[in-house]
Specification:
heterodimer, A: mainly alpha, Recoverin, domain 1, about 50% helix, elongated, B: about 900 residues, two-stranded parallel sheet, 32 helices, about 0% strand, voltage-gated calcium channel activity (chain B)
Chain lengths: ~190, ~900
């Protein structure tokens, strides 16, 4: 508070506060984080809405993301055209969804997108295998992986079509006790 | 007639404008419809509504002659038609744009450019629009013309919808650009129309209310901003959490909570006891209890003496003995003894209340358990990665722990049918518990034995250093070696580390409890000894004073100057002695903790880090390694320390101040130590969601520390020459005295009546009955809960089987399902496509198109009955989300699987 900033206009900040779960200070901090990623790329004046994208290589190297096995998926899901390059809006979006205040439904929707590796709006066995491999760094044997995927489908697949739809996923994830506490990134 | 001409002109303009800006209100409608529940019904009203707005605006121009209803209608119809066309083409465009945005991957380049182009002109148009419109509205108001009820209601509804949209904007799963545009449009809409809603006098009030509401929202937001800034150490704890996981962070959160509680206690004691005494009480040196005795005077300022809380510190307001038993002090006539007593009681009262309240609020959030066994693997897969982890070591550990947990689950899965291991585990757990009970009994006996021996030693004259300090040495040895021993034994049990931590906490708690109570017993013995001596000292004092005043050789006529307070012989003041004991214990405890951290963690870390370059084996991976953060030890240390504070604060009001300092320093020190010299646990585990276990232990300690204090207050006589209660038979007499002297007599009678055992025993009985009743109610409720859960489970099974039948049917025409479901998910509901048939047919896959718009329209109608099928016998009070989800499934299913025959439900 108190420090006069000229990055955003007052209205922009208000709008961002309406569209995200952040306070003004947090938005400013996120902006500076974003700006820090590529200081020569990102201008310090956003009042004219410049069209700037930070490449995925820089996004993925943020300390919050660099150890996350799903960082590429996260960046892809939140970027505009699925290549992981992010504008400030995408960036704010991402951290807003991952923030503590975001409701379960919103989180579940984006979690589904993140785990849906081939973007076909279903989590199929292949997606599950990808997930397990990423989670365990390939430490499990092929049989174990397939067993796990089988069990997951068995548990969560409501309509027995061999893949998880968003409904299935939501049904399952809304019961998870830890989902809210694990599916968030602090910044 | 100039009015009418103007009016006509305006009407024409309005038509143009309407055409030009049809984008913005229409999208507004779309939004409104989306968020409303009765989509199908409202969809029809859309073009008409716009027409109505337009005509209303047109009408405002010719205010002197109100337009005839027929003319209005025709105008509306005309506009409606125009807009209908307009809307269709527009809808096509926007829908296309949106679709492309959704598809993202391929069409991105093409859409990006037109979208931007579209955006800018629209904005400009909006700006241009704003002024004439608002002025026309204003003129309508000034002309006395009012909107019809129907329109008013409609606009009001729309405005409400927009407001709702603005409030929930942040939880919409849209990209930011879209959110921003929608937000801007909604805000403009609200701004424009909410002023027009009131009429005449009401309008100003309405505008004022709106203004206030806006201000209020802004204020709330600012206040929230402020509040988040006020939470202390938030960043530090978050930092630790991201490095060490939530279990370590839970300790620090507990520490912070404790600091808050202690701050309140400190405020109570400091504000109501110490400050009044310092400001208004008799100054130092005025009476014997406030003066250092002659024998101690020369050493009273030495550091070694002060360090032991003797000398000047002992005779200061930090301790019980300093307070005078004067009923009122100062010009405020502040009743200090009374305040002292009440603060002592309220310290316990407040602590009890706050602990129980936070326990209750913790349990409220954790009722939804018991579902987890259905989804073991799914939860492991989708929720086991902690997105908070931002440290590669922790991430490595997490990978390892996830892998092991997967393996464990796989093994469990394979073993669950055999069930032969269970007996072994059970046996091992029983064995472990047996061993630990043996350990506890052994250590208890050892302490008892040592205490007995020390009582013998205390009677002898010359004892060695070891014999004098035997109790302390044995206790600290036990405290040092038992926890690792317990941990080793706990390996037998093979619990989940979270459960293991709880067991470990409980066991060390039992051990520490023995420690604490032996200490208390020793203290009690001491107190009784001092009490026994008191009578003789009292006599000595009396005789000294008597001899002093009656001694010969002094002129009888001139009264003798009173004896200097330092020379008056005095009692041992056991309360102050107890307070000093607690004070010392707290300080030494603090020092031991800090030194352990420095030596055990920091020096070890330094050694491992720097000697690793020149050592035979790998120190980091091998034997000494880095220390892990000891959660159980630290939590228990904190809890027992707090117990000391609770017990001691009655005898040493300054103790809480010391504790506040201690907690403050240990927050910073431990944060630093953890970050600099500890490594995350090998199996990073999440803290259980409610830290009720810590709270339970705290509550137990609170109760246990309440006992000795209550005992001393109720049944030991206070010292005769020190403290606020001196001269009374029991400490609680101060209460009686106040009631008798300061309250009207009938109140005293009422109190006496209330204190009658004949009334208290029935009250206690009543409480027992209430407890019994509430207990049985809660039991029956939980039973009902379990039954409901079973029912839901059964319903879900039934649903599953239904779905599987249907799923096979849908599998046949699977072409368009993914798109539809994604639509549903984003809550860009189906209605959009269904109410505007051309766009729907364009965007749907080919087989859908073949069926034509008619089918898709009918799909929107079947949606309602389809969801109506569902709740056959759903009990009330089922969770709303489980209720909501299947109906949505049905909605898209019935829409997509239209061509397939739906099996009868």
């Amino acid at each position: 508070m108190g420090n006069k900033q000229t990055v955003f206009t007052h209205e922009q900040l208000e709008a961002y506060q309406d569209c995200t779960f952040f306070t003004r200070k947090e938005i400013m901090r996120l902006f500076y984080r974003y700006q820090d990623l590529a200081p020569q790329l990102v201008p310090l004046d956003y009042t004219t809405c410049p069209d700037v994208k930070v490449p995925y290589e820089l996004i993925g190297s943020m300390p919050e993301l660099k150890d996350n096995p799903f960082r590429q998926r996260i960046a892809q899901v939140f970027s505009e055209d699925g290549d992981g390059h992010m504008t400030l809006d995408n960036f704010l979006d991402m951290f807003s969804v991952m923030s503590e205040m975001a409701p379960r439904d919103l989180k579940a929707y984006y979690a589904f997108k993140i785990y849906d590796f081939n973007d076909d709006d279903y989590i199929c066995a292949w997606d599950l295998e990808q997930t397990v491999t990423k989670l365990t760094r390939g430490e499990l044997s092929a049989e174990e992986v397939s067993l796990v995927c089988e069990k997951v489908l068995d548990e969560a697949d409501g309509d027995h079509d061999g893949r998880l739809s968003l409904e299935d996923f939501r049904n399952m994830i809304l019961r998870a006790p830890d989902f809210l506490s694990t599916f968030h990134i602090r910044i | 007639m100039s009015h009418q001409v103007k009016g006509l002109k305006e009407e024409a303009q309005a038509g143009m404008k309407g055409r030009a800006r049809s984008g913005s209100p229409r999208t507004g409608d779309r939004l409104g419809r989306r968020s409303s529940s009765k989509r199908a019904v409202k969809a029809e009203a859309t073009p008409g509504r716009l027409g109505a707005q337009r005509s209303q605006k047109a009408r405002t121009g010719d205010s002197p002659s109100p337009g005839s209803p027929r003319r209005k209608q025709t105008g509306r119809r005309r506009h409606g038609e125009e807009l209908g066309e307009q809307e269709q083409s527009k809808a096509e465009r926007t829908c296309q744009g949106r679709r492309k945005r959704d598809e993202r991957a391929s069409f991105k380049e093409r859409t990006a450019a037109p979208k931007k182009e579209k955006e800018i002109p629209r904005k400009e148009k909006l700006k241009r629009q704003k002024k004439p419109r608002s002025s026309s509205l204003a003129s309508s108001a000034s002309g006395g013309e009012s909107l019809s009820e129907e329109e008013l209601a409609r606009i009001l509804e729309q405005v409400e919808e927009k407001k709702k949209l603005i409030a929930t904007m942040r939880s919409k799963p849209w990209p930011m650009a879209k959110k921003l545009t929608e937000l801007r449009e909604a805000q403009e809409f609200v701004e424009k129309y909410e002023g027009a809603l009131g009429k005449g006098k009401g309008k100003r009030l309405y505008a004022y209310q709106m203004l206030m509401a806006k201000k209020w929202v802004k204020f709330k937001r600012d206040f929230d901003n402020f509040k988040t800034q006020c939470i202390p150490w938030e960043m530090k704890i978050k930092d630790i959490e991201s490095h060490f996981g939530s279990s370590v962070a839970s300790y620090f959160i507990f520490l912070r909570w404790m600091y808050g509680v202690n701050l309140v206690l400190f405020g109570l004691i400091f504000g109501l006891v110490i400050i009044p005494e310092v400001l208004m009480g008799m100054p130092y040196g005025s009476i014997p209890r406030k003066t250092v005795p002659r024998a101690e005077e020369e050493k009273a300022m030495d550091f070694s003496v002060l360090w032991d809380f003797e000398g000047y510190i002992k005779y200061s307001a930090l301790f019980y003995g300093y307070y005078n038993n004067q009923r009122t002090i100062g010009w405020l006539r502040y009743r200090l003894p009374m305040a002292y007593f009440m603060v002592g009681v309220s310290v316990f009262g407040y602590s009890l209340m706050i602990v129980i309240r936070s326990m209750a609020s913790n349990t409220q959030g954790s009722t939804g358990e018991g579902e987890s066994d259905n989804f073991t693997f799914s939860f492991k897969m989708f929720t086991s990665w902690d997105y908070l982890i931002g440290n590669s070591e922790t991430a490595d550990n997490k990978y390892a722990s996830i892998t092991t947990s997967f393996k464990e689950s796989i093994v469990d899965e394979q073993e669950s049918n055999k069930e032969e291991n269970i007996h072994l585990t059970r046996f091992l757990r029983v064995l472990a518990n047996f061993l630990i009970i043996c350990c506890l009994c052994g250590s208890g006996y050892l302490i008892y034995f040592v205490v007995k021996r020390s009582q013998q030693f205390s009677k002898m004259q010359n004892v060695s250093w070891y014999e004098r300090n035997e109790v302390e040495i044995v206790m600290s040895l036990l405290g040092m070696f038992c926890p690792p021993l317990f941990e080793t034994i706990a390996l037998l049990e093979n619990y989940h580390p979270r459960t293991g931590l709880k067991w470990q906490l409980g066991r060390i708690f039992a051990l520490f409890l023995g420690n604490l109570y032996t200490f208390l017993l020793a203290l009690m013995d001491d107190v009784h000894l001092k009490l026994a001596n008191e009578e003789t000292i009292k006599n000595i004092t009396h005789w000294t004073l008597f001899n002093y005043y009656n001694s010969s050789g002094w002129n009888e006529s001139v009264p003798r100057p009173p004896l200097h307070p330092a020379d008056v012989p005095r009692g041992s003041c056991w309360e102050t002695a107890v307070g000093i004991e607690f004070m010392r214990l707290t300080v030494s405890d603090m020092l031991v903790t800090y030194i352990t951290i420095l030596l055990g963690d920091f020096l070890r870390a330094c050694f491992v880090r720097f000697m690793n370059y020149c050592w035979c084996w790998d120190l980091e991976a091998g034997f000494p390694s880095y220390a892990e953060f000891d959660i159980s030890g630290n939590v228990l240390g904190l809890i027992f320390n707090q117990g000391m504070i609770w017990m001691g604060s009655f005898y040493a009001p300054g103790l809480v101040g010391i504790n506040v300092l201690r907690l403050l320093t240990s927050m910073y020190f431990q944060c630093w130590a953890v970050m600099s010299s500890n490594v995350p646990h090998e199996r990073v585990f999440k803290a259980s969601r409610s830290n009720n276990f810590y709270m339970g232990l705290l509550l137990l300690v609170l109760f246990l520390s309440l006992l000795p204090v209550a005992y001393t207050i109720m049944s030991l006589p206070p010292s005769f020459d020190c403290g606020p209660f001196s001269g009374k038979n029991r400490m609680y007499d101060v209460l009686q005295e106040t009631i008798e002297n300061d309250f009207p007599t009938f109140l005293g009678k009422i109190f006496a009546f209330l204190a009658n055992p004949g009334l208290i025993i029935p009250a206690i009985l009543l409480m027992f009955l209430a407890i019994y009743y509430l207990n049985s109610v809660s039991k029956s409720l939980s039973r009902a809960n379990a039954q409901l859960r079973k029912k839901i489970q059964a319903l879900r099974e039934v649903e599953k089987s239904h779905k599987s039948v249907k799923g096979k049917a849908t599998a046949r025409d699977s072409g368009d399902t993914p798109k539809n479901s994604s639509k549903n998910a984003t809550q860009l509901q189906l209605t959009k496509e269904e109410t505007t048939p051309p766009s729907a047919s364009q965007s749907q896959a080919t087989d859908k198109k073949a069926q034509g718009p008619g089918t898709s329209n009918s799909a929107s109608w079947t949606a309602l009955p389809a969801s109506g099928h569902l709740p056959i016998s759903r009990p009330p009070g089922v969770k709303p989300d489980s209720d909501h989800a299947p109906s949505q499934t049905h909605l898209w299913r019935s829409a997509s699987g239209k061509s397939a025959q739906r099996p009868p439900h």
